[in-house]
Write a structure and sequence with these properties.
By secondary structure, this protein is an alpha+beta fold. It is built from three helices and seven strands, in the order βααββββββα.
């Protein structure tokens, strides 16, 4: 099953990249995520690994994931090493006036083939899609708020001179 959502954020791509590449921030903006912890020597970058769990209904699903694509300020992708078969991708694209288009994609497969596996994927999809949408909204709120605070601090420092 593949689920994708997107949102425009009124902030430069650098600020959004900073948020999505900081593993310490994931539990603050990722809806439904109950675990996201570094499981490798390097906390970020190509090859970084994370233990992750997401609540979907009454179940927590996830496993160990590894970053397999790291294109600075553009794309970050991971794939599962153990646990639920999954692939995720953040895609950032510049928009006019310092805005950023953010796309978040998640593909997953439920263990078990045939009708029951397909049915489990279909039942989970609306919950996963809702988690992705809320995550993007929370990311937008946090990044835009941080940008406003930084701009206000700049104005205060200029007026103090």
């Amino acid at each position: 099953m593949r689920v994708a959502c997107g949102i425009d954020i009124s902030a430069p791509r650098e600020l959004v990249w900073e948020a999505i590449t900081d593993p310490a921030r994931y539990l603050h903006f990722m809806a439904g995520l109950t675990r996201w912890e570094v499981a490798s020597d390097e906390p970020t970058g190509l090859g970084a690994r994370y233990r992750m769990l997401m609540r979907v209904g009454s179940a927590e699903i996830g496993g160990l994931v590894e970053v397999v694509e790291w294109d600075e300020l553009g794309d970050l992708a991971w794939t599962s090493v153990t646990g639920l078969d999954q692939r995720g991708r953040w895609r950032l694209r510049e928009r006019p006036q310092g805005h950023t288009r953010v796309e978040f994609r998640l593909s997953y497969g439920v263990a078990g083939s045939g009708l029951f596996g397909w049915l489990a994927e279909q039942v989970a999809a609306p919950m996963v899609r809702a988690n992705l949408r809320r995550s993007l909204q929370q990311l937008k709120r946090q990044v835009e708020h941080e940008q406003l605070r930084a701009l206000a601090a700049q104005r205060r420092s200029r007026s103090a001179v």
